[in-house]
């Protein structure tokens, strides 16, 4: 080969080229972004609209329904889901994969604009947002400060802390939870106010009119234009107290005469406690494409700088994704290094020659370093999948070098010079090792037909393995023959390995017996396939392995309408109970501003410092909590990192139809059945009828008699029950809202509601009870719809079973349930994603098998030889399934990718064996004689290449280190399949070859063909 001859003639040139690649490789390595998993785009858009004061059914009919009708006509839209709750509508659009989301966003905006003009004035402008994985926080930090209450701390955090962190490179947004916003409370005395003939609406307008700062134009004075501004803005709370209010009788009173004015704060952004201490919680989001670990370092440095100037500032790192990423990636790097060392030791044990081992092993570091250059220019990141691809390929990187060096030495023994042997030896095997590499990488071509998350994972793995194998092929054509021509001695392969020789002798007799007793080998083959198929029915399935990140979430749902103080007290008690668990390091509780929903985030100690896994701690929490005061508890670990499901539960069952009562009955029936399924836990209906409401029924005749309209009634009730912002002002850079309250306690009784005064157009007042009655109802606090059909959702978690097994059992339990006409049941969440991804990967697997066959057919120029070699594929699959079954590991997306990769790897042993058998037969050897010579001859290289790959994967197979759960299914699949298939290949392939050759000869003789 010209490239080989050039390499041997120009060693300095090759050396400089290698140094250049290494230099660029290191630069690329340090410039690559670091993340847990590959970045991926969510083909989803959210439309959020608020309608203050409107109930769920009103929101459904006025907002969600017309929006859905318009949005369903959007190009490439798959599903339109909506949630109509009190005062807000949220619509989620799911698009086909590979949709141009920028164009889709524009089209959604056009559809919304078509409907917007028909909406009530109170409806906010719809907010359209493309969903992005980067919306999830990469860090959560609790802060408190000695000597400052939460109001002062909130002010400091908003003015100083948040801007400082948002200036850190890579930070997109900083959210602040638990803050107390200072406000000016104007708490009116309804009796005093009405005694002066003034209603709340008039008072609100008057306060707003007394706080103005409006430009009035310009005047000309000489050569200058001077701005004229009308300014009468509030400077202090005293200015508000002194506001003069004219009464209908002509008197003038001050605001303080009819209202109490004071500085206060509100829990409008929730209540946060870190380890039981009142705190603020910072959630840090990173910019798309930024380096998670660098962002984390930048944020921590900014916090250190602030702590150095604020000695009383206390910072508690609740969650830092970078810590888990660093631990996980370091574990993968360590495993890769150990795997490389083990692979090199295999070479040394077999060859017993240090120089030859070094020449072969040099392929590993150079190929890996060169791969980093390709990764950088492919805009990839260093993550669990890409590094896993490198770790997977480590043992395979020496395969080409082994073949090249072995052939070079063979020619040296025939008398060729080192120079000629290196060139000729490389040339002879060039097509073989190229074809072998092609079979290994051709399995990745089906990625073109794979969509969604499966494509993202598959692509990262495919590119890293392909880059590294292509680099190893180039090294085998250049550096290896160069070094071999100068370093390999004549006795490099003469050192007898007694163990290998004994194995060869034993193998010879086994092979001879097998050829003489082909029916028994056929029986073993059939039994293996049957046993593998049986094992497949017993292996569980899951979407993506959940790594033990040491984080557990406890969601506490209180009955709708529960007072925020009651929710806070409940959450404090729950935190104390679970905070006492030895494995728990930090508890962070958050009572959201929706009051009924709250959650606790538990951060566990490092894996090495605790005896229990996150799932075991979750079970302990469930046992400790049970049922708490009517609250619903949902305990779950950090959800699968590739899950796009909006639910935190892996199983969601949607019941679709039109009537609420029927939907609820069906849902409750399904829940009873699901509770009987082993492995299903935390089963609950997400849309229960638990929202208490009071319906005001207006007597229209009585209302008309007093000149009162429904809008007047609605406005009066709203003023009584809700605060309303009437103005705002700024003092020394701090902004204050001025809010009117009709009730200082912010709560009213039914009696208070009935006694509300409604002011007529003539400013007369009439009590509500004279024109209306009150009716207590229990309604739904949210209404869910999918493609314009109402749905109720049942959520469930999985315990001690695989996701696929639990779902299969649930399907069996409900298959005989008779649904009314117009109603249906469907599974969503991770189950839906798993089915879609597995369908894609199954197609990829079928195409991979076909491609491998076609590559081998082209190599051998034969249809029969590739067919013989393809028997290794089902054997490998049997070994992989048996390994997963024995180790109780479910088949997941990484395992499916492992099956695809295994297809390309496993045929190489068969290629080596069949190729030599064919050559010996061309030299005149009978079939069985050729087999008995080829088998023992190729035993050593087959064992070497298989063992280097298997031992290269050993650290991953043992599941060592943080995040190992992600790599484990892939490593088990590949190594298990390789071990089983290698053992049987050495016997089955020769037997199949012999049988098919005899069959071919019989057919030829029957039809008179030579």
TrEMBL record:
The organism's place on the tree of life at top rank: Bacteria
InterPro entries: AcrB_DN_DC_subdom, Acrflvin-R
Protein name (Swiss-Prot/TrEMBL): Hydrophobic/amphiphilic exporter-1, HAE1 family
GO cellular component annotations of the record: plasma membrane
Transmembrane segments: 12-30, 334-351, 358-378, 384-409, 429-449, 461-484, 520-541, 841-860, 867-889, 895-918, 939-958, 970-996
UniProt KW keywords: Membrane, Transmembrane, Transmembrane helix
Any single Pfam family the record assigns to this protein: ACR_tran
GO MF annotation, one: xenobiotic transmembrane transporter activity
């Amino acid at each position: 080969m010209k490239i080989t001859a050039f390499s041997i003639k120009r060693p300095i040139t090759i050396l400089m080229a290698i140094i250049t690649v290494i230099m660029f490789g290191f630069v690329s390595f340090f410039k690559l972004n670091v993340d847990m998993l590959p970045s991926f785009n969510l083909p989803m858009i959210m439309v959020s609209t608020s309608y203050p004061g409107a109930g769920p059914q009103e929101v459904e009919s006025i907002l969600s329904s017309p929006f859905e009708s318009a949005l369903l006509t959007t190009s490439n839209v798959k599903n339109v889901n909506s949630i109509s709750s009190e005062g807000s509508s949220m619509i989620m659009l799911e698009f086909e994969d590979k949709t141009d989301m920028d164009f889709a966003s524009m089209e959604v905006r056009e559809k919304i604009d078509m409907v917007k003009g028909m909406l009530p004035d109170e409806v906010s402008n719809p907010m359209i947002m493309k969903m992005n994985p980067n919306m999830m926080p990469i860090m959560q930090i609790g802060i408190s400060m000695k000597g400052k209450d939460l109001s002062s701390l909130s002010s400091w955090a908003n003015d100083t802390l948040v801007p400082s962190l948002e200036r850190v490179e890579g930070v997109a947004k900083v959210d602040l939870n638990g803050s107390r916003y200072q406000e000016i409370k104007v708490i009116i005395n309804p009796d005093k106010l009405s005694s002066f003939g003034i209603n709340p609406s008039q008072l609100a307008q008057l306060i707003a009119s007394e706080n103005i700062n409006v430009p009035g134009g310009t005047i000309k004075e000489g050569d200058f234009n001077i701005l004229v501004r009308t300014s009468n803005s509030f400077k202090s709370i005293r200015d508000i107290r002194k506001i003069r209010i004219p009464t209908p009788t002509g008197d003038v009173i001050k605001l303080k005469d009819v209202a109490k004015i004071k500085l206060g704060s509100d829990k409008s952004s929730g209540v946060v406690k870190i380890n039981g201490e009142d705190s603020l919680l910072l959630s840090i989001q990173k910019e798309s494409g930024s380096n998670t670990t660098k962002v984390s370092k930048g944020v921590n440095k900014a916090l250190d700088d602030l702590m150095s100037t604020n000695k009383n500032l206390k910072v508690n790192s609740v969650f830092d994704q970078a810590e888990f990423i660093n631990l996980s990636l370091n574990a993968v790097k360590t495993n890769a290094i150990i795997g490389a060392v083990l692979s090199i030791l295999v070479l040394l044990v077999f060859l017993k020659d240090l120089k030859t081992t070094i020449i072969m092993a040099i392929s590993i570091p150079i190929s890996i370093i060169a791969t980093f250059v390709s990764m950088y220019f492919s805009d990839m990141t260093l993550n669990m999948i890409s590094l896993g691809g490198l770790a997977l390929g480590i043992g395979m990187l020496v395969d080409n070098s082994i073949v090249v060096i072995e052939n070079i030495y063979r020619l040296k023994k025939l008398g060729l010079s080192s120079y000629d042997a290196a060139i000729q030896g490389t040339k002879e095997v060039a097509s073989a090792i190229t074809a072998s590499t092609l079979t290994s990488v051709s399995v990745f071509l089906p990625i073109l037909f794979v969509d969604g998350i499966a494509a993202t994972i598959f692509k990262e793995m495919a590119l890293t393995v392909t880059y590294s194998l292509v680099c190893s092929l180039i090294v085998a054509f250049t550096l290896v023959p160069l070094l071999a021509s100068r370093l390999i001695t004549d006795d490099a392969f003469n050192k007898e390995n007694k163990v290998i020789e004994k194995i060869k002798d034993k193998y010879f007799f086994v092979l001879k017996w097998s050829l003489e007793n082909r029916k028994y080998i056929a029986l073993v083959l059939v039994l293996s396939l049957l046993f593998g198929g049986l094992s497949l029915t017993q292996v569980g399935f899951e979407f993506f392995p959940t790594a033990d990140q040491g984080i557990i979430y406890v969601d506490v749902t209180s009955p709708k309408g529960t007072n925020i103080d009651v929710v806070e007290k409940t959450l404090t008690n729950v935190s104390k109970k679970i905070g006492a668990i030895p494995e728990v390091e930090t508890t962070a509780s958050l009572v959201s501003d929706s009051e009924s929903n709250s959650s606790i985030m538990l951060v566990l100690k490092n894996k090495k410092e605790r005896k229990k896994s996150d799932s075991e701690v979750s079970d302990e929490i469930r046992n400790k909590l049970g049922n708490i005061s009517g609250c619903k508890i949902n305990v779950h670990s950090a959800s699968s990192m590739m899950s796009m499901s909006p639910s935190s539960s892996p199983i969601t069952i949607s019941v679709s139809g039109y009537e609420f009562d029927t939907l609820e009955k069906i849902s409750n029936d399904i829940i009873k059945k699901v509770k009987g399924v082993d492995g299903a836990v935390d089963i609950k209906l997400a849309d229960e009828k638990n929202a208490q409401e009071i319906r005001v029924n207006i007597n229209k005749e009585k209302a008309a008699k007093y000149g009162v309209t429904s809008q007047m009634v609605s406005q009066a009730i709203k003023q009584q029950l809700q605060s309303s912002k009437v103005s705002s002002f700024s003092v020394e850079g701090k902004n204050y809202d001025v809010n009117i309250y009709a009730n200082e306690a912010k709560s009213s009784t039914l009696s208070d509601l009935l006694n509300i005064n409604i002011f007529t157009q003539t400013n007369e007042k009439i009590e509500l009870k004279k024109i209306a009655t009150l009716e207590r109802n229990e309604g739904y606090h949210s209404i869910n719809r999918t493609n314009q059909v109402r749905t109720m959702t049942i959520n469930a978690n999985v315990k001690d079973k695989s996701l696929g097994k639990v779902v299969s059992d649930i399907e069996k339990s409900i298959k005989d349930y008779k649904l009314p006409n117009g109603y249906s049941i469907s599974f969503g969440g991770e189950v839906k994603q798993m089915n879609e991804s597995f369908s894609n990967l199954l197609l990829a697997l079928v195409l991979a098998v076909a491609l491998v066959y076609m590559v081998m057919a082209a190599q051998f120029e034969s249809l029969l030889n590739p067919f013989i070699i393809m028997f290794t594929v089902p054997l490998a699959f049997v070994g992989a399934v048996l390994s997963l079954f024995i180790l109780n590991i479910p088949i997941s997306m990484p395992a499916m990718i492992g099956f695809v990769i295994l297809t390309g790897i496993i045929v190489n042993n068969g290629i080596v064996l069949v190729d030599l058998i064919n050559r010996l037969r061309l030299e005149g050897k009978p079939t069985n004689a050729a087999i008995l010579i080829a088998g023992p001859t190729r035993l050593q290289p087959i064992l070497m290449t298989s063992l280097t790959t298997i031992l290269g994967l050993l650290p991953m197979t043992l599941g060592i280190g943080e995040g190992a759960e992600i790599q484990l299914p892939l490593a088990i699949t590949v190594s298990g399949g390789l071990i089983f298939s290698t053992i049987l290949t050495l016997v089955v392939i020769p037997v199949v070859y012999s049988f098919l050759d005899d069959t071919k000869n019989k057919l030829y003789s029957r039809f008179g063909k030579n």
